[in-house]
Write a structure and sequence with these properties.
Length: about 280
């Protein structure tokens, strides 16, 4: 099995034409010049750590790690009990690999952040659905000191994952409902509160005192940020369809629905108060 799955995560023909046609329009309007497209890529920013939770993602994790290293100084892969070569491939690609007990995504993120030494964290999925090229866009409001926490919006940037089937419909409808409730409760204007692709100040993440063990960590991060009166921003990011492997979230499990329900109620009932130092 190849360690470099470049043939799995593709920059597809449709996406290529989408970019080319919009670039042509920008040329016509004088909004961009060829020199901007031909200039060198951004240099990795040593103040950013990318955190990638991964379990049985050997087909994609290496390429995701290498792509992230184009934009960040450090990559930490939290390996949660894989039975394949996820850990070895991630380490060979340049990541620092931390093993956890496989307790869930939330527990993995908290463990990873405890090892971070940079002021900014970016959370990226290992399955190729998040495009690391959007990392500079995610961290820009934090670097400009205009936000403490920035989420990528699939509603603004598009998603190949949230359409077409029953599970996709439930995910999209559930995300929209949760986002509406948070906007109503906290007076925010979010479009996508459930995307795992996001950036946050490291010290803010630690002070939010997050407790969720599972994928509900994203919901808890949003509620805790808004309740603390911190600045939460949103930028458009595109979500690709999972390139390989399988989703670790099963909507057929009652425990998933109970966990989301519990954390939603807890998030809506949070008291508004600043974070303690």
């Amino acid at each position: 099995m190849a360690d470099d799955p470049s043939d799995i995560i593709r920059f597809g023909e449709d996406e290529r034409l989408f970019v080319i046609r919009r670039a042509r329009r920008m040329f016509r309007r004088g909004q961009a010049g060829a020199d901007q497209f031909l200039s060198a890529e951004e240099q990795p920013n040593p103040s950013i750590t990318a955190i990638i939770p991964a379990r049985n993602e050997e087909l994609t994790v290496g390429l995701v790690v290498r792509e992230c290293l184009n934009y960040v100084g450090t990559v930490i892969v939290v390996e949660g009990g894989s039975t394949d070569r996820t850990a070895a491939i991630a380490a060979a690609a340049g990541a620092r690999v931390i093993r956890d007990e496989g307790l869930g995504k939330g527990a993995a993120l908290r463990l990873a952040v405890s090892h971070v030494t940079t002021p900014i964290c970016v959370f990226v999925d290992a399955d190729g659905s998040h495009d690391p090229i959007d990392i500079p866009l995610l961290v820009a409001p934090i670097l400009a000191d205009t936000a403490d926490h920035v989420t990528g919006s699939r509603l603004l940037g598009g998603s190949d994952e949230l359409h077409g089937g029953g599970d996709e419909f439930l995910r999209l409808a559930g995300s929209a409902f949760i986002t509406y409730l948070f906007n109503w409760r906290y007076g925010s204007r979010l479009s996508d509160s459930q995307n795992g692709f996001r950036a946050i100040r490291t010290d803010v993440f630690r002070r939010l005192n997050l407790r969720s063990r599972h994928t509900t960590i994203e919901m808890e991060m949003i509620a805790a940020t808004l309740a603390a009166g911190l600045v939460l921003s949103e930028v458009p990011t595109h979500e690709r369809r999972r390139a390989a492997g399988y989703s670790k979230i099963s909507l057929s499990r009652p425990s998933i629905w109970l966990a989301y329900g519990w954390h939603l109620v807890a998030g809506l009932c949070r008291r508004r108060r600043p974070l303690s130092p």
